[in-house]
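#onboarding

Welcome to the new folks! Below is a worked example of what a typical request in this channel looks like: someone posts a single protein sequence, and someone else replies with the predicted structure as tokens. Don't worry about understanding the tokens yet, we'll cover that in week two.

Example request:
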Amino acid sequence: MVLKKYYNIGIAVDTEQGLMVPVIRNVDAKSVLQLAAELGDLAQKARDRKLTLPDMQGGSFTITNLGGIGGTYFTPIVNYPEVAILGMSRTSRQQVVIGDKAEIRLMLPLSLSYDHRVINGADAARFIVKLAGLLSDPFQLLSEV
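Example response:
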């Protein structure tokens, strides 16, 4: 196992030529706004077929989103040498019980696949719980990331 000292995240982009996964580098050193801008630029490069091989190398984690296509859940496959992939599906309004009250909430199905040789399953579950909490409160996301 090689321990990396950086956080580079691949973002799956659906293009007319197929799926492309450009990599955003050093995500831990960037703000959410910087990440959003870089994601937009890389996604456009992917759609314009202007990605270079280095643009798609060096990721350690990927995020993919099938929400625009549909479906509820799926099983994203980890692409070696990455260690995990987060899949997001289409959001839907669902009735949930909060405390003693039934409420309608916007729900985002998440699927996390990971290499058990590198990631402890309990740590992966804690990651998903933390991520769900951050996504449910965008202001908290902006202040903690």
